[in-house]
From TrEMBL:
Keyword Cell division among record annotations: no
Main location: membrane
Cellular location(s): Cell membrane
Name this polypeptide is given: Sulfate exporter family transporter
Transmembrane portions of the chain: 20-45, 65-83, 90-111, 117-137, 149-172, 213-230, 239-259, 265-286, 298-317
Keywords tagged on the record: Cell membrane, Membrane, Transmembrane, Transmembrane helix
The keyword Membrane is annotated on this UniProt entry: yes
Membrane topology recorded in Swiss-Prot or TrEMBL: Multi-pass membrane protein
Amino acid sequence: MRHFHAPRVVFGRVVTLRQVVFALLLIYCLTPWASPPIALALGLVLAQTLGNPFAAQTKRLTATLLQFSVVGLGFGMNAHAAAQAGRQGVAFTVVSIFGILILGYFAGRWLGITRSVAHLISCGTAICGGSAIAAVGPVLRAKDEEMSVALGTVFVLNAVALFAFPAIGHALALTQNQFGLWCAIAIHDTSSVVGAATAYGDHALQVATTVKLARALWIIPVSIATAMVFKQKGVKIKIPYFILGFIAAMLLNTFVPAAKPLGPVLVALAKTGLTLTLFFIGAGLSGQVLKAVGARPFLLGVLLWGVIASASLYVIIRTV
């Protein structure tokens, strides 16, 4: 492995072989042959073998790239269908969010996990993974190691969900509508929700994206409630403004005929951006990140995820 890290001069620039490998994988993720699961798998393999040579840069880019990709997906959505999907997911959203936050509190105490870590993992499971943790963490004034543990837990489970959910959906013969709802409720991060739904079908993607982004808006009231419950004063609430961009794109696509020809191009770019986002996320799951999680926080994450995934699947199959 040492020769992959050794610097070489190529065309007057100093590079390493692992940087070349990273660049080749990145280029592949930009091609039509790459899919979100493949991109995530390539990133994971890179992280566990050569390591990510641009870890700091990809960490900064991931959130921005995901937000632009989500806005781009709005140009493939119909506002009327999205409103219907959003109404359908409201009851699931409210019950599941409060249920997981309450269960996470008691399960965290039972497992002997600090209150902050338990709350961060619960928020990540209940709302929207890393985005919720990033928003609630500063409100809690969580330490860096607490944030790392919570983020590592949900990112590992996200990776599992991206591969497992489409297979389970096909095995149970879920409809596009059922699978989209299940993804939005039971998978943590928007990136993995969109990736799994993309693999299942276009209608599943529309339902999953709409319901998940409506769910993400709960970051605001949950952050405010966190500040009150944990008695934190003078903290700043992080608002997911990119959701407004998604709504604007969806409205343009539905009501402005001149915007329709741009839709397929922007959606294709958004899907490529999502694939690249998942490659970056996979490349960030290094051995150090996995070791930092610890057994008890990971057990809490698995417990909460198992409850929300199984309970929501049962209800959706019975009622949708």
